[in-house]
Amino acid sequence: MSTTTDTPVRPHDAAMSHVHAGGYALELRQLRKSFGKTDIIRGVDLAVRAGERVAIIGPNGAGKSTLFNLISGRFAPSSGEVILNGNRIDGKKPFEINRLGLSRSFQITNIFPKLSVFENLRCGVLWSLGYKYTLFRFLADLRDANERAEELMKMIRLDKKRDTLAMNLTYAEQRALEIGITIAGGANVVLLDEPTAGMSKSETSRFIDLIREVTVGKTLLTVEHDMGVVFGLADKIAVVVYGEVIAFDTPEAVRANPKVQEAYLGSVLADEQAASAGH
Amino acid sequence: MSRTYYEFKPWNVGRWIVWTLFALVLLLAPKVFTSNLSVSMLAQMGIAIIACLSYNMLLGQGGMLSFGHAVYTGLGSYMAIHALLRVSEGALSLPVSMVPLVGGLAGLFFAVLFGYVTTKKSGTTFAMITLGMGELVFAMSLMFSEFFGGEAGITADRMVGDPVMGITYGPGVQVYYLIAVYTFVSVALMFAFTRTPLGRILNAVRDNPERVEFVGYNTQMVRYFAFMIAGFFAGISGGLAAIQFEIVTAEVVGPIRSGGYLLFTFLGGATFFFGPIIGGVLMVLAFVLFSEITKAWLLYLGLIFLFMVMYAPGGIASLIMMNLRVAAFGRLRELWVSYLALGVTALVVLIGAGALIEMIYHLQLSTAMGDTVKFLGATLNARSADSWFGGAFVMLTGLGLFELARRNFSRQWAEIQTYIEKEIKRRETQ
Lengths: 279, 430
Known about the structure:
The complex is a heterodimer.
Chain A: E1 24-35, E2 38-49, E3 53-57, H1 64-72, E4 79-84, E5 87-88, H2 94-99, E6 102-104, H3 117-126, H4 143-155, H5 171-184, E7 189-193, H6 201-214, E8 219-223, H7 227-233, E9 236-241, E10 244-249, H8 251-256, H9 258-278
Parallel strand pairs in A: 3-8, 3-9, 6-7, 7-8
Antiparallel strand pairs in A: 1-2, 1-4, 4-5, 9-10
Chain B: H1 13-32, H2 36-62, H3 70-89, H4 99-118, H5 123-143, H6 145-148, E1 154-155, H7 172-193, H8 197-207, H9 209-213, H10 219-245, E2 247-248, H11 255-268, H12 275-293, H13 297-311, H14 315-328, H15 336-365, E3 372-375, E4 378-381, H16 385-429
Antiparallel strand pairs in B: 1-2, 3-4
Helix pairs in contact in B: 1-7, 2-7, 2-10, 2-11, 2-12, 3-4, 3-10, 4-10, 7-10, 8-10, 11-12, 12-14, 15-16
């Protein structure tokens, strides 16, 4: 075990006022990943300023989720650097990265099914409040952890389901809980992998409001397919095609970018127009 | 809203009642069951309860299927009996009532040592490593006879040192009360563990280890710490066993003992805290009483285990809790006819199957004693077609009737569960 991470950077304290060289919350430098002989990520450079909301778009199989897995430590990159709040994090374990202020959600709901909603959220806050592997205190006496979990439960509108087991929630509620666990530790960089996957249109728009609300002041990276959501939520858009970022700019600039039009957006926008015309 | 209500109110009356009752049961049990055999069994139950609860810290709370828990109870026993020997030699000054702690520390020490390797992995790999560790220690127990005592084991006298307040640990009932105190404190501490941050994160690791890594926890460390604590209580249980029996043989670290912990923890119910307590009690009943009734007891045990895995994977504790839930919604009373039908038909199956099993055992093992088998007061002839036909007929009839009763019960049960779900939804929306 590395000892340097045993004193966690309190993510709350390290919020966006924390300015590093260049002022970037997250920086990827020539990041590469191959599985066997297949190159999935082929030299990605990306620099996200603190407090920015970035949507990552691209066709299926372009490497968006792999990119998230590399950043969050699920996989180690083959080469290149990932810098979070000024710290090199490439090759570190997920829990080490989390302690340095990065948290993520998953495309496939990833919660604690046999624990209640409240317990799910409380598990999410414990480490960040410094309780770690505490053995000699009762959970019930941890005022700050309990209050934070209650507060989160209200934020994600699940306070009426406090004692319901997570596995008995509806799909949309589970997605909300997933976001709740992700933001629980107060990380200042939040990665959301297709947060609205599998939701209906009306659920999606409500959910986007929720995401916007709970990530105020945080640096947000999200993989998203719904272009309405992307253009509504993001300050900047990164277009990933075949393991490379082919554009990284404001929504307007990306929309107008001929390279993007050709590689990806043209077909997607055409599909969406066709879909809305069909209604 | 329930802002200040987190888990329990500090003066939770229900909880006080439960713990007081538990203490009273421990206190009064030897007054009700006074024979030497029953006092010895009660003492063994305390030992088994601690062992099964410590095992369940791994299985039920941490999702770690260990096949080698006897390593920690057994090495605890060995260290405790060596401590007893040193005390009687005068080389060590320690009251006998503290000897179980030696076992606990030994359990902790070996859990720290072996657990580092064992808990590196989870799931199937974890199970395999524990199996390997178990075999390793068992093999060593036969190699190093100075420490393990070889075939004969190690014996010691628990009546050593000066008696404290007239307690010599000569009479079995004194040992019982020592074990009862350790049982109460250990159960309370292990319950308290489930209410700590580490205990809760252990549940989270069981449910979804990957997610735990992404909220800042090193799952390997969580498993390792839990393993140490389980090892400590396992060692306490082993230390008490050393005092109770005054002999420790190699089988206490063996795979059969480990399998016993798994089997009875599962039977009692791994999903609820109190399940292993039931398991521990059953373990002693089976090993001491059931084995007296029939030589084929392990076979029956296997059948019961199979039956439970198939029909009630949550063990007896979950059966109790499910019925309590039905009772809470006022629907338990209508089930009693079905339960009666299930019970009677299951008994018929058991009688038929029992007759067959006893005859098979007789033919295989004790033909020299003649052809007749005494079974529940009836005389069966293991070489007569009539007895075999009769046994098979009773069993098959029982099976048919049981299946009918079971189907009827399932329908009724499903209807009640739907009602309860609806009722819960209705109450939620109110």
